[in-house]
Amino acid sequence: LGYPTHSAALQSVSLIQREVEVTSWFPGQSHQGKMGSQEPRPKYYTPYEVSLHNHEDDLWVSFLGNVDDLTSLVSNNHTSELAEPIVAVAGTDISHWFNTKTKDLRTCVDPITGCVVPYTPGGRFIHVPPPVPRTDHPTNISRPWWKDPAFRIGKLTARKRTLRVVNILTSQETLIDVCTEENIEEIQERYRVHNGHTDSYTWKYSGVVLDMKKTLNDNNVIDEYEKFQQLSIDETDEACISEVHVYYNDDLSEG
């Protein structure tokens, strides 16, 4: 029997590394076995949208770029004092609770026991084990809520953009906040509350029809926020707001 070549060994190591990356997203949950399947596009939210869900009956939080709906978690534990730290941060970003490398809770050394324990300056919360064994702490939790995709409803946008949509048929101008990651179809859904017949319109920028499957940037509606920031121009300034036009489909000749 011959030994594997150096090239074959490196290829084997590479395959193992890729497998570890895929299977370690959430402990105990494998994402293998779906080779070639395409994950659905995540829904993106702005910090303002998250902030609207700020009480125990409707409770969202964002952390590490994700958005979780913890309403049911708190509802199922509403009599527990462990729910209070979560209710206190409803509608906010709690990324500071987590280690950005491990994606798990930050830790510290307990001054009494000398053990490494979760760092919870706001008080221990749901699914965080006590610093010492207790009979009232459940031991059948397969995964804590911050690692449970069942609570995940989407992602937090890396940056919010304000877009002016001009209806050429009615001359109505509408300002809407959108996420930089959203494609035009998803932006159209945000615009629907202002125009219920938006499916009957074609979107254009500088006279060019926009690709509904692409983002604003990919459609050359460039976000020049960084350039304006260097020039000390506030992002709410009119010059920072991109403008797109929507044409009623029976009126495209005017475009």
Structure characterization notes:
- By secondary structure, this protein is an alpha+beta fold.
- The protein has helices spanning 6-23, 47-51, 71-76, 84-88, 184-191, 225-230; strands at 44-45, 54-55, 58-63, 66-69, 107-109, 116-118, 152-156, 160-167, 172-179, 201-205, 208-209, 242-248.
- The protein has a five-stranded mixed β-sheet.
- A hairpin with a 2-residue loop joins strand 10 (201-205) and strand 11.
Would you spell out the secondary-structure blueprint of this structure?
Layout (H helix, E strand, L loop, with lengths): L5 H18 L20 E2 L1 H5 L2 E2 L2 E6 L2 E4 L1 H6 L7 H5 L18 E3 L6 E3 L33 E5 L3 E8 L4 E8 L4 H8 L9 E5 L2 E2 L15 H6 L11 E7 L7
Parallel strand pairs: 1-7, 8-12
Antiparallel strand pairs: 2-3, 3-4, 4-7, 5-6, 8-9, 10-11, 10-12
Average of pLDDT: 84
Low-pLDDT ranges: 6-33
Task: Tell me the strand order in the biggest sheet.
Answer: 1-7-4-3-2
| First-last Cα distance | 72 Å
- Count of helical regions: 6
